[in-house]
Specification:
about 350 residues, alpha/beta, Rossmann fold, 6-stranded parallel sheet, 4-stranded parallel sheet, elongated
């Protein structure tokens, strides 16, 4: 049986208007009071009509999130979790749009001003152009980037938070070179060239750093099937088809590195005895498997982006709305010095 707004106000020891504002104008209620009101409202099975709340506030209470990756992937799922942690508590819903090409991206930005069904847009791991940002700016909808582009402000974003992929790729390359590896492969996925993905930046920096040190890595492309699964068997075939097996392999993400280790060992190679492997993310099972990797925290990154978004929606334009988070090299047992010879 549901309760009334009066029941919630009485239980929380606040006025009816405070209960209403906790749902419709959270910026006007202290975090502690709103948390208590929402907790009691949930316990009493009370909910305020979203349509009434939206009408009163002039907002849709919805955030559009544009993603390029499959939702089951560790990074993508972690970002969604982090965004939902913050937005759900503030009465906002998330609408997820999977964007796989520039054409789909342009269609989204063309339709949103017409529909006016989002209070902000969060773009995860790819670029947008000036015309698209102008379309939303004209109706007062802020665009926030998560791992989008390094110079997000110049691209029309209202705010952004980005892992320093350049730093992360440099740390990975330097680690392998310092260990003495000169025959290195880099495993990357194929991406639509019309979109700028953060993983492309990792690849470019890694290759450039090695080249400047006199090493030219092999670029190996990992295909992704329609269900988002990496075709690791084909990667191993490509590696074993080279004139010599590389002594070190860098992967654009842990999702490639972890199954690659199993496939290499299945084909008779020891890690790191014959081949060193380094990933990027520090995702699930990386520690259990002993994967050397570059650590990032997409949940915390999403928390920061969500709070930036709420600030912009509420007109609280704070300084430092463009943040770059440091990457960290985590050395485990999957990397070591190269063996004298590798067959």
């Amino acid at each position: 049986m549901s309760s009334s707004i009066q029941d919630v106000a009485k239980a929380a020891g606040v006025s009816i208007s405070t209960v209403s504002r906790s749902f419709t104008r959270p910026d006007l209620v202290s975090a502690k009071t709103r948390e208590r009101v929402l907790r009691l409202a949930d316990e009493l099975n009370f909910s305020l009509s979203r349509s009434a709340a939206a009408l009163k506030s002039g907002r849709s209470l919805r955030i559009a999130v544009l993603m390029s990756g499959h939702l089951r992937m560790w990074f993508t799922a972690s970002v969604i979790e982090g965004l939902n942690d913050v937005f759900h508590a503030q009465g906002y819903d998330i609408s997820i749009f999977q964007i796989s090409s520039a054409e789909e991206r342009r269609e989204f930005f063309a339709m949103l001003p017409v529909r006016r069904n989002a209070d902000a847009v969060i773009v995860v791991s790819f670029d947008i152009d000036a015309a698209e940002t102008a379309q939303l700016a004209s109706i007062g909808v802020p665009i926030i980037g998560v791992n989008s582009v390094a110079d997000a402000e110049q691209h029309g974003f209202a705010a952004s938070v980005t892992i320093d992929d350049g730093q992360g790729a440099t740390l990975a390359a330097r680690h392998l070179l310092t260990l003495g590896h000169h025959d290195i492969a880099y495993i990357t996925t194929s991406r639509d060239v019309s979109l700028h993905f953060s993983v492309r930046g990792r690849f470019d920096v890694f290759m450039d750093y090695c080249t400047r040190k006199g090493v030219t890595p092999h670029a190996i492309e990992c295909q992704v099937d329609d269900d988002g699964h990496y075709e690791i068997g084909d990667v191993v075939t490509q590696l074993m088809s080279l004139d010599t097996m590389p002594t070190a392999i860098a992967c654009q993400e842990d999702g490639i590195a972890l199954p690659l280790i199993f496939q290499l060992e299945r084909n008779g190679f020891t890690v790191p005895g014959d081949v060193s492997v380094i990933g990027y993310d520090d995702s699930f099972y990386a520690d259990d498997i002993g994967l050397t990797t570059i650590r990032q925290d997409p949940i915390e990154t999403a928390h920061i982006a969500a709070h930036m978004t709420l600030d912009l929606i509420n007109g609280n334009n704070k300084d430092h709305q463009f943040r770059t988070l440091s990457a960290q090299l985590v050395v485990r047992s999957s990397t070591g010095k190269p063996a004298t010879t590798v067959q």
